[in-house]
Every structure is written in structure tokens, then in C-alpha cells.
Amino acid sequence: MGSQVSKQIxxxxxxSTEKKALCDLCENCGVEFPGCDYRPQDRKKWMAGxxxxxxxxxxxxxxxxxxxxxxxxxxxxxxxxxAQCQSLSIYKQLVLGARVxxxxxxxxxxxxxxxLLTYSVDVVINDVKKFxxxxxxxxxILEIRTEFGHEDPPEFDKYLEEQLGEFLIxxxxxxxxxxxxxxxxxxxxxxxxxRKSPQPKAGGPLWSAGYLKDNWVDTDLPxxxxxxxxxxxxxxxxxxxxxxxxxxxxxxxxKADNPVVCVKPVTGRIHGYAxxxxxxxxxxxxxxRLQIFSTDFIDGDFVDACVGLTHARVExxx
Length: 318
What we know:
Layout: H1 2-29, H2 46-49, E1 62-65, H3 90-96, E2 100-105, E3 110-113, E4 116-120, H4 121-134, E5 140-146, H5 156-164, H6 180-183, E6 188-193, E7 212-214, H7 222-234, E8 245-250, H8 263-271, H9 274-283, E9 292-295, H10 300-314
Parallel strand pairs: 1-2, 1-9, 2-5, 5-6, 7-8, 8-9
Antiparallel strand pairs: 3-4
Helix pairs in contact: 1-7, 3-4
């Protein structure tokens, strides 16, 4: 019992030390970067606002959400706080400006996070199609994967093609160098990541797992995650020379050996430092690696930071 208490005290101290480290870094370095003052007139249509004929896919800093479809997961006030990473529906996230959606599913096509369940993936698809019907020039990256420990839904690739076929941008290495206008009216890059089923074929309507990569660092320590994100990003090639999307996630996750195990207060340790992360990428000389930036509980300021840097890149200021 005594050793367990000592361990808990040590963990709390580590969290406190790392929170202070990020706070001090922010005070010393600030949060400025090219485009940091830019605010889109309409987050729902921010890509259209940047001129689709000028915006190349590899110039975009894509704002994304982590575990996107968890707004109604589990049982309210009982299991939900341990798995909920977003408070908004997929449709509302897209309206707010998110353009990369991260969906985890199980065999019966229900969305899940670990062992906890929520609505059918049909809800996600309907939200995406509703958003697409209300906009003209917004491109979405829709990542759908079978959750670890679960089986692939039968014939799920056919389901995605049937539901999204008219919008799907086919798997194509040349797409990275194209403008939004050159891809329209196709508007969805759908990355399907099955666990055991065959990967999508080259040139097909769905994109395979290798086209969306990241280095997930499983920790609840904010400075550890921040520094690890910096390290892994620095090892990537620039966006202009790679033929895959690379994601950095501005999140930390609860750990069983820490007394705080609800998602929101834990991820809140790093949530406010998205602008600092972009600032540090510039100060260290590898902001040209930044491509997808995801967060828990997405908000307007996070979107504005990503759109601001995108605007600066499009205008040749970054």
C-alpha cells in the first residue's frame, strides 16, 4: 500500500513538473508563426476562402480530431468521461473547420473506443454527406480503421464505396501536388485501415494505411508528448517531397497508474499548446514537415492556427 501511494505521489509530481515546463516554454518563446494572426471569415468554408485554385494539398495544415466519433460514447457520467475525446458531432466538427476525421469501428459497424460503444458508422457517413451537400470546395480526409482487438466489418470497403462513391478522390500519388480546384468535384480522401482484410488496391477509390502515418506516443505527460512529437516530426521528409500524409496529435491520454483517468482533464494538460507547437517547429527549422495536426475537443482557435499557417503557405509567406 505504501509503495502504491509513493508511486501516485511521484506520478502527480511528474505531471506538475511537465505542465510547468510547457508553461515556461510558452512564456519564453511565445506563440507567433507565419499566419498566426489570420482568422477565416467562415470556418465552415475556410478552404473556399483561401481560393481552391491556389491551395495545393501539400500546402495545407489539416486540422483534425482524434477519436472523432466519441461525443456520445458509453454511458453519460459513468463510462463516457473515460473515453470521450470530442464533445461535438462529426457534422459540427466539420462546420467548425476540422478536415481530418478519425473513426474506429468494430465488426458490426458500430463506432467504438476500446470496449466502449456508440452509434453506427452510418451516423458518421450521413454527417459527412450533409456537410458536403452544404459546401462546394472543402476537402475531407476520412480515416476509418478497425479498432484494436476487434474484427473487420464484412465487405466494409464496398459499403464505403457505395456510400461515398461520387465524392471519393481515388488513391493517387499525384494528388498531393494538385490544387483543390483540380480535384473537384471529388472531395473525400477515404483511408480504410482494416486489421485482417486486404488493403485497398492502388488506384482504387479508397486509400491504404500507408498513406496516413503517425508516431503515437502513449503517455499522459504533456512535455514528454510535446517533445516526442517534435522529435518524430523532425525525422519526416518535407511535405513537398513525400507521398503520404503524416499526422501529429496534440493529445495526451489517461494512464491507469495515475489518479486522474478521465480524458478531458488529462488531455487538457497539452490542449492549449497547439500554437506553441507550430512556433517551435518554425524555430527549429522543420515547419515544412507539418501536415496533419489533430486534437481532442477541437475548438475554433485550434482551427484558426492551422488555417492561418495554410494561408501563409499559400501566399508564399511560410
